[in-house]
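Chain entry —
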Amino acid sequence: MNVLIFEWGSYNHNDILETFKKKGCAYTVVKHRFEDVNHDDEFVHEFGGYLKDGKYDLVYSTNFFPLVSECCNEHGVKYISWSYDAPLDVPDIERTLGLPCNYAFMYDREQVQGYRDKGFDNVYHLPLAVNVKRLDGIYLSAAESKKYGAQVSFVGNLYDSQMMNIMGIMDDHHKGFLDAVMKAQSKIYGYYLIDDVLTDALMDEINRVVHDKTMEYRAENRAEIKANSLKDPEMKDSKQAKTSEESNVLHISREALSYAMAAQITREDRLLALKLLSNHYDVALYSREKNDLLDKVRYMGTVDYDSDMPKVFKSSDINLNMTLKCIRSGIPLRALDVMGAGGFLLSNYQPELAENFIDGEEMVMYDSIEDLYAKAAFYLKNPEIRREIAIRGHERVALEYGYEDRLDKMFDISDILK
């Protein structure tokens, strides 16, 4: 089988290549970084050129890309995507997701069900994988064990939410309501209520207020806005400038608001957890952002996924997984990577994690900030129990979460071998 692999900088790229090679597949890798995932004429021309002669049996990418899908559909080539992001950051994804060439695999069961409820029967649930053999081959020197060692470590972003900017153009009523919803969601584990709250009626109300406030501001500052508009050679008269004002009023989509709220909650939860733990224990943070609130946390910058991140997991007494709130049910890649490296995992409650692993025997879950602190304290005081749990978690992912098994399932569902 000859496979065309689209690559954009995914974490698991090397593990994917290794798996295709083990399956006897020849492959070509095309790399590209989109500025706009829905519009890129140069990419369409280049990528379509690879497909037009019928050389490739399959196109694969980690995460789903609309322009890859459109090229595959045009040339009659099956397109398998397997996403480790949830939700996918793809504006207007439903425009291309249903194309007949697509076999879209996602790790979050609830996200998959949401698409299937909308009629997308080519979206499938497939948990993520980990390359345990590769991770087992990573050894640490004494200096590296000291460098990466910590009582508690967290590898991940703190998130930069747009929620404060969005709320800045709302009225007090909607600000208060959404703030209350976020506070409630912060205390709930295993159920994402925000999408249920953001009804069509509420979104209409919010956008009506945003429109009115925006137009009120522009009316108060019309002279300045008009002067700036008329500097544009395309604005030939004041009527056209006024029309442009109306068309450029911000419209907030349900998806954008939901993600902004989830990111804001996740940011606050992560800051609170790291602050609390660092007041009592040695906590290391591996992230792009150094936050002044975390004055007792050891900021370690970022780490390479393949070479350094496993060393963090192997060296840390406790590895935290604090999932983005809008990941409804799935097991994030970070959680599998921790267990695959033989590290001890302390994670927030996730339904699929609870269903597929034994809490307290293969990993440990918490369901509140108080529970997180209590369990961190207990397992730091009990290293033997901690090590036994890490060993059993490692054995489980080695047995059931391999890449070859996942690729077999993708091939079977897509009938690619027939």
